[in-house]
Specification:
alpha+beta
């Protein structure tokens, strides 16, 4: 075919990406247009499977937004998404509830039983938080023993009820430190 804009040029290379739904594979498509003669252009297309690279990129992204101890979202994710969540709730005129959670006397737990025990406590709390939230809620570990839960489409009364439920579950939870010792811990929760 005759393409006027390519008549006096050298090769034109176009690169794009495509996900094939049938075989669930990512491809990089490299197309090169080469003038062959006055009225002919050659088009060479090369497909490169980039699924492994895409998986690595996804894994690296997850590593940057997840807490390595609990696999909860981290502060970076919260900072990146908080405005979107709040603006969406405002635009749709939906309630939004936020819980701030802190483990009481956590330093004393670490000092008395060691950091491995402290890690068990953090993991234990994380598990309770996940078990008591919906798939549409956002659970974060934002600091050492500090957590945030964002409950979209949840009013303050429901948020207070959920906070009390989580607090009571934690109060009753026994955490085995070693063969002889079990410890209990409490949390403080702020609701907004």
């Amino acid at each position: 075919c005759k393409i006027p804009q390519l008549q006096n040029t050298t090769n034109k290379k176009i690169t794009s990406e495509h996900f094939n739904e049938i075989n669930k594979t990512w491809y990089q498509i490299e197309e090169e247009l080469t003038p062959w003669s006055e009225d002919t252009i050659l088009k060479n297309t090369l497909l490169i499977d980039i699924s492994a690279e895409k998986k690595i990129q996804k894994n690296l992204r997850e590593l940057t937004i997840r807490d390595p101890l609990t696999n909860l979202y981290n502060r970076r994710h919260l900072i990146g998404i908080q405005n979107e969540i709040f603006l969406f709730a405002k635009r749709k005129k939906l309630p939004l509830c936020v819980l701030m959670i802190d483990i009481d006397a956590f330093k004393k737990i670490n000092d008395t039983y060691g950091h491995l025990c402290g890690d068990k406590i953090i993991k234990s709390l994380s598990k309770v938080l996940i078990e008591n939230t919906r798939g549409s809620d956002f659970v974060y570990r934002i600091g050492g023993e500090e957590f945030v839960i964002i409950f979209p489409d949840t009013n303050i009364k429901e948020g207070e009820r959920l906070a009390q439920k989580i607090r009571k579950v934690i109060e009753l939870l026994m955490n085995q430190v070693d063969e002889l010792n079990n410890i209990q811990f409490t949390i403080s929760i702020g609701v907004s």
